[in-house]
Amino acid sequence: MNHQRGEPIAFYYGTNQVDRLAAFGRVVLQGDAYSEQDIASLVVRGVRPLCYLSLTEDVGPPAEWQRDDRNPDWGGRFIHVGHPGWSEHVLNQARAMRRLGYRGFFLDTLNIELTYPDDLPHLLTLIAAIRELSYPDYLLANRGFGLLPQIADLVDGVLFESFTSRWVEGGYAPWPPDVLDVHARYAEMLLGLDVEVFALDYADTPRLAEYARERAARFGMPCFVSIRDLSIVPAQDS
Q1: Is residue 233 part of a domain?
Q2: Residue 74 and residue 72: Cα distance in Å, rounded?
Q3: Which of 37, 40, 109, 227 registers the highest number of CB atoms within 10 A of its CB?
């Protein structure tokens, strides 16, 4: 069921804030940041909570599926996606979060087409396994442009993270015009597929935030604007 509330979607990686999150149709949360009771409270208010899942990076203890290299921004180790131990690790996470009450998953770290292109088929296989495990729960993919168009058959929605603006050293800024043009072409491609499409942008001023929302609206994409670590829930107009 597609719940429509005051705002379509929120991304929040902090704790508490259940009452504010109830203003959204869907909310993406860190899996263990909320109790079973909190998640149930959101569900009974018509909110669909989605649990964050990283599919190509691991912030956990050393494991045989990890590569030596790390993500320089967030510190997680990159993964051999086709390793059977990694697949089972992710699916076990998904099973545990479904038991906790989550009604879907946000699939992150999908953009490996330039770093580990040989892993793309394994990544599609993993997403298909999550789809089979979680059906009919909602699956939202973050970008994943290297998996197009096949990924559209496996997920319900695609998020275009950093569609208009991004965080830079010391603050936030819009992308330069050439990048905005490339993003526009990807957006048009996504909108031609049978998936819902959302935008997530980063800003620290009302002017930049409004620019991001207005640009996303021109492509028919609901846009959530936050800061880099997704640690705030903007107050909604009553």
Answers
A1: no
A2: 6
A3: 109
Q: What is the pLDDT of residue 75?
A: 67
Provide the domain count of the chain: 1
> Which is nearest to 208 in space by CA: 227, 189, 181?
227
- Among the listed residues 75, 165, 190, 56, the one whose alpha carbon sits nearest the alpha carbon of residue 113: 56
66 bridge partner residues = 79
* CATH number of 164's domain: 3.20.20.70
Burial class for 224, CB neighbours closer than 10 Å (0-12, 13-18, 19+): buried
Q: pTM to 2 decimals?
A: 0.94
Give backbone dihedrals phi and psi of 8, rounded to 5 degrees, phi first: -70, -40
Residues 6+ apart with CB under 8 A from 6: 23, 24, 236, 237
Q: What is the mean pLDDT of residues 189-212?
A: 97
- Per-residue pLDDT of 204-222, as tens digits, reads 999 999 999 999 999 999 9
Query: Would you say 170 and 131 are in contact if contact means Cβ atoms under 8 Å apart?
Result: no
